[in-house]
Amino acid sequence: MSKIEQLISEIEAYIDECKPQPFTNNKKIIVEKDVIDELLVELRMRTPDEIKKYQKIISNKDAILSDAKMQADSMLSEASKQTTELINEHEIMRRAYEQANQLMEQASAQAQAIVDNAVKDANNIREGAVRYTDEMLKSLQTIISHTMENTQSKFQSYMTSMQGTYDIVTANRRELRGDETAEAAATTESIQMEPQTASEEQ
What we know:
- By secondary structure, the protein is mainly alpha-helical.
- It has a domain at 154-201.
- Helices cover 91% and strands 2% of the residues.
- Strand 1 (19-20) and strand 2 form a beta hairpin.
């Protein structure tokens, strides 16, 4: 309780203790002028001090509020700064992950392209080798076929020549020995020649 409030309480207590005037229905009291004057003088004297005290309290309150506001603003600014830094860090991390994923995708695509090209080249080489081998075999087949045809033709010519010679010899023998003897000999020799001819054809 302040001093002014204490003096006011004392004045109220003093008034309550004063006797009422007769025949006033307790609406008027009898007070001692000296006592009430002393209380009022003390009240007047203490009032400026109390006012200064309250002004100081109010001033201090304003200073406290101002300081609190400054601290709050500083805290808000720092929090905002930290939030911005966290957002920036998050953005940096997000971009870093995004770039890393892009690099991984590019590397994977390049590796796949290299593998595909290698497989394609290998297939081309294999197909080329198969074509080359087939062409070589085809050429060899043609050479063998021509050789067989030439050999068959020469063999047939040789056999025809031999048959002509054989016929001449047979005819000569007929003339020397007579028809029957020569014919029998020709038949015997013809039978002996057939297995040899078959063997030579094989």
